[in-house]
UniProtKB/TrEMBL annotation:
Functional pathway: Pyrimidine metabolism; UMP biosynthesis via de novo pathway; (S)-dihydroorotate from bicarbonate: step 2/3
Alphabetized GO MF terms: amino acid binding; aspartate carbamoyltransferase activity
Species annotation: Pengzhenrongella frigida
Superkingdom of origin organism: Bacteria
Protein name stated in the entry: Aspartate carbamoyltransferase
Gene Ontology biological process terms in this record: 'de novo' pyrimidine nucleobase biosynthetic process; 'de novo' UMP biosynthetic process; amino acid metabolic process
Amino acid sequence: MRHLLSTADLDSAAAVHILDTAAQMAATQSREIKKLPTLRGRTVVNLFFEDSTRTRISFETAAKRLSADVINFSAKGSSVSKGESLKDTALTLQAMGADAVVVRHQSSGAPHTLAHSGWVDGAVINAGDGTHQHPTQALLDAFTIRRHVAMAGAAGAGAIGQLDPTGRDLAGLKIAIVGDVLHSRVARSNVLLLRTLGADVTLVAPPTLVPVGVEAWPCRVSYHLDEVLRDQQPDAIMMLRVQRERMSAGGAGGGAFFPNPLEYTRGFGLDARRLALLPEHAIVMHPGPMNRGLEISADAADSPRAVIVEQVANGVAVRMAVLYLLLAGDSAGSASTAGSAS
Ligand code: CP
């Protein structure tokens, strides 16, 4: 594996290999000595053109736990505000010797450009680009579902290990992804990865927040949340943030109209009543940051079924695995993903 740009580049063997490696990383984190020497002498650059709390901190934590040196770059307060281009920013960071560049950018395709431009020599990891992809978020979501739901029958919830040698670890699981699908790179990344792992995915959204061409996605689409909860009994429900910053009051600039908050919550918000419609084992997920009271009520966000904080913790293990596989090389992983993302 040379870069990680999209979940579309991962076949089931590659995805399971990352998840299994993440499980090993998680196991090291529960021991007393958290820091591994694996990436000593390597440099990871976090290149963030868009705001982030979870992803940026978790990549930094992951790199440090593998003993890499970390350079954090945030566009705010940098020469980007003076008009410096992505190319010149990348060349500057490359001159400082980056072995991996973790990039978040408001433009879909920016990490792809970086990976294929020759501006940087190191591995490029997509930490979220526009409305396109957020592959490590999807991997940490799959990791969380795997630990909670898929393994519950076999070894008890929370167990770690390999599930299915065919790589269809989530086969037969029903996952509902609910909300602002139109602007969500998390939804796009998850639909592809969860399908690759065998899950049955349903997107639930108001018609105005469903992207054109969704019929071609490998999932079902519904406009009725109560129906999906009652009839499908999903094993996991993933609530999406309403991305107000990508919307406008008049729907101008390629964005969508901002929905009426009361109507949105009534139709698509997860609250205590809807929580009660879910099967007992179902988990509640959200990539964060949450709009409490809009797409998810405090009852639901803080309920014992919510695994939202655990998703964040799992993100460190998943990102350790990705950095390890990209920078320390791994023949088993690269065999299954060779050329896929390069
Ligand atoms: N889930 C996620 O990408 O969160 P941040 O924007 O805080 O990184």
